[in-house]
Amino acid sequence: MSTVAAAPRALRTRRTPRPRRIRPARIALHAFLIATVALWLFPLLWAIYAALRPVSETIINGYLSWPKTLNFNNFTTFWTEADLPYFYLNTLVIVVPAVILTLLLASMVAFCCTQFSWKFNLVVLMLFIAGNLLPPQVIIVPLYWVYLHTPIASFGSIDVGRFSFALFSDNGLLYDQYIGIILIHVVFQTGFATFVLSNYMKTITKEITESALVDGANVLRIWWSVILPLCRPALAAMATLLFTFIYNDFFWALLLLKSGDKRPITSALSNLSGEFFVNNNLIAAGALLAAIPPIIVFIALQKHFVAGLTLGSTKG
Amino acid sequence: MVATRRRRRYSLLTRRDKVLIILMVGIPLTLDVLLIWGPTLASVLLSFTDWQGIGTVTAQNIVGLKNYKTLFTGYAFFWPAVEHNLIWLAFLAFIATPLGMLLAVLLDRELHGKRIYQSVFFLPVVLPLVVVGFIWELQYAPSDGFINNAFGLVKSGKIIDWLGNPSINIYSALIATSWRHIGYIMVLYLAGLKSVDPSLREAAKVDGATEVQTFFNVVLPVMAPINVIIVVVTAIEALRAFDLAYIFNHGTNGLELLSILITNNSISEASLIGFGSAIAVVLLVISLVPIIVFLSRAMRAQA
Questions:
Q1: Which residue of B lies nearest to A302 if distances are taken between CA atoms?
Q2: Total structural domains in chain A?
Q3: Residues 6+ apart with CB under 8 A from A308
Q4: CA distance A43 to chain B (A)
Q5: B178-193 burial by CB neighbour count: b if 16+ within 10 A, else e?
């Protein structure tokens, strides 16, 4: 195979022993791409530049000026004064359970809809997918009412310093609760995750499930110890994607949370920037700090990230 | 043949297994129906009432089409919001999405630094929209922003208020949105391009087609399924637009969008739930177009 492929190339090099001519089209392409990359990175780099400069200097010289001092003071100021670790923790207690629950529920539905043929499995899949495609604003008004009128039991809370995670509600409602936000993320994202995971599970032959049934395993067992391990790549891809989606959420937290101290970092940032922080340098530092977790996840897990997005699109 | 196979498979399931399947599908489905489809239906029903969210809905609350009449003829923000949503859609569909496709086509080849190019274009997609908003405010700010300073508009006193001027701020918001949207489309399209059979391109090349001809006459038609998805994604993104407009100025003064009008009317001091629901129904009806296109596509793929 490799010799066949190599043959024509060998022939060509013999005929033209000169080094390969660099085509002008290639140069133009690289020039265009590099220019676009510069354009793409510029807003981000500008924000970093503003965040690294003391506000006193930009007031005197303007933002468009050469730096005299560059330091991380804005970052440390925002970090401590906004009590940023606290809001990272708020995000964490929402994102982690939401991602895990979404993957569990979605993989159950995808498993039942792809490994067994029953009358309504297509309809069920469609309901989940369509639900995820709706703009959230279509359902917000009745949902808000539901959140204000669903009684939730209170069994105390898990407290760590100032942070308090209510079990399951500290006001008897779904509204203004961590579990309320977790719940809506799970329900909304389950649609998308079901779609992607069912696309993936369709490629697993049904005979695996059938032979496990013959061996006497029950359905729950097959889902957990046969199908889920086979779906590891898809689950990793989905986990990466869901982490970013839920981390980046602004809308649900804005409408379904009221207490400032329950806000995840994204909506806390928009809240704080109007009230407490007015100088641009400090706000830029805060915005960049809030962006760090998804950027780290993206850089570390880029392959999973892209795989998740494309699983959802190419096989649909 | 099919019937006997199916019966054989079902006979493997014990009664306990069947109960388990019902639970495994039933619990998520119940949540989905209660928190998504129930509220959707409730939005439709509430749009025919003047309910303000207090007490129960009674027969006296039913006002027929009055909310819709007010919406279409008496509410000053409705048509501007529709127009802005349409501009949003057109801008994404005719400018941002094609640019994302172009980047995908350009990157779909052996290229030095391809990974780096790809990562940079995709980077804004992972940023929270709140952060995207702040990053662009640093560009757009009237006297402190980069753009006005770089083009000497501050010095010459011709400051352009990119986010405050109601006739241009939607385009400022759209540029910030596109910064994200283009990378998203690029990744989706690149995946589609990778699945195109290379022998098709080889054949076109042998026949003497240029690269542009090959793309429009060979690649694009084969990519029909992914093209549909790209169009659907673009439409849904345009209808969902909320965060940036809200972050820039709470969706007022030139940035009114249907999604923002819904929340402003029903979840605020106003609490005009019936009226807000009527706007939600308008948004729902428009959204059903791309959703149905997507579902019929997915149906065909499943069948």
A1: B119
A2: 1
A3: A196, A234, A237, A238, A240, A241
A4: 6
A5: bbbbbbbbbbbbbbbb
- CATH code (residue A116): 1.10.3720.10
Cα separation values, B66 from A99, A140, B49, B274, Å: 42, 21, 8, 10
| Chain B nearest-CA residue for A292 | B127
Residue A284 located in a structural domain: yes
Q: Could you read off the pLDDT of B248-296 as tens digits, one per residue?
A: 988 888 999 999 999 888 877 667 889 999 999 999 999 999 999 988 8
Q: Which of A27, A52, A122, A138 to mutate to test the interface with B (most CBs of B within 10 A)?
A: A138
Is residue A209 within 8 Å of residue A227, measured between CB atoms? yes
Cα(B106)–Cα(B140) distance, rounded to whole angstroms?
30
The answer to whether A193 and A103 are in contact (CB under 8 A) is yes
Q: Is residue A241 part of a domain?
A: yes
Residue spans of chain B under pLDDT 50: 1-4, 7, 9
Q: Give per-residue pLDDT as tens, A40-75.
A: 999 999 999 999 999 888 888 888 888 888 999 999
Q: Where are the domains of chain B?
A: 1-38, 47-302
Residue A101 covered by a domain: yes
What residues contact A276, with CB distance under 8 A and at least 6 apart?
A: A81, A82
Q: What is the ipTM of this complex?
A: 0.90
- Answer yes or no: are the C-beta atoms of A177 and A170 closer than 8 Å: yes
Quote the pTM value: 0.89
CA A259, A263, A268, A270 dihedral sign is: negative
* Three-state DSSP state, B62: strand
Range of the domain at A267: 82-314
Interface contact B283-A315, CB threshold 8 A: no
Distance from CA of B167 to the nearest CA of A (A): 23
Say if domain B47-302 classifies as CATH 2.40.50.140: no
What residues of chain A score a pLDDT lower than 50? 1-16, 315-316
Q: Quick one: tokens of B272?
A: 């005009």
* CA distance linking residue A262 with residue A270, whole number of Å: 14
| Contacts for A179 with CB less than 8 Å, ≥ 6 apart | A152, A166, A168, A169
3-state secondary structure of B74: helix
Closest CA to B249 of B131, B175, B167, B169: B169
Ramachandran class of A279: left when φ > 0, alpha when ψ lies in -120 to 50, beta otherwise: beta
The rounded distance, in Å, linking the Cα atoms of B269 and B263 is: 11
Q: Is residue A16 left, alpha or beta, with left meaning phi > 0 and alpha meaning psi from -120 to 50?
A: beta
Q: How far is A225 from chain B (nearest CA, A)?
A: 15
In-domain check, residue A45: no
DSSP assignments along A161-217, one per residue: TTEEEEEE-SSSSSTT-HHHHHHHHHHHHHHHHHHHHHHHHTTS-HHHHHHHHHTT-
Output the pLDDT for position A61: 84
Instruction: Give the separation between CA B229 and CA B244, rounded to whole angstroms.
Output: 24
pLDDT value of residue A306: 81
Q: Which residue of chain B has the CA closest to A218?
A: B17
Instruction: Give A245-302 pLDDT, tens digit per residue.
Output: 999 999 999 999 988 889 999 999 988 877 677 788 999 999 999 999 999 999 888 8
